[in-house]
């Protein structure tokens, strides 16, 4: 994949633009890592409480074999958040300028 930054319409030097983009990517990757770690912690608490991995929980949740406890919906949201922020962290941390 190629990413392009249009610099021809800017009065800034390419080094300054590179630094700004690098800073933005680094900040976004750090934010994504923090969110990923937060959701990971939430999932671990549910796993400990219910003695079930998040993967097994998702299988059972998607199959409709669990009840309607609020914890299950919160856990589901945490797993979805974990997956989303893990993916974003992995993508952003792999980009170089």
Order of helices and strands: HHH
Our Rg estimate from Cα atoms comes to: 19 Å
Class from secondary-structure proportions:
mainly alpha
Kindly estimate the percentage of residues that lie in beta strands according to DSSP: under 5%
The backbone outline, from C-alpha atoms, is elongated
Strand count, sense and closure of the main sheet? none
Total number of beta strands:
0
Can you describe what's shown?
- With 97 residues, the chain is an all-alpha fold.
- It has a domain at 33-93.
- It has helices at residues 14-50, 54-63, 70-93.
Q: What structural keywords apply?
A:
0% strand; mainly alpha; elongated; 97 residues
Quick overview:
This protein is mainly α.
Task: Set down the secondary structure blueprint.
Elements: H1 14-50, H2 54-63, H3 70-93
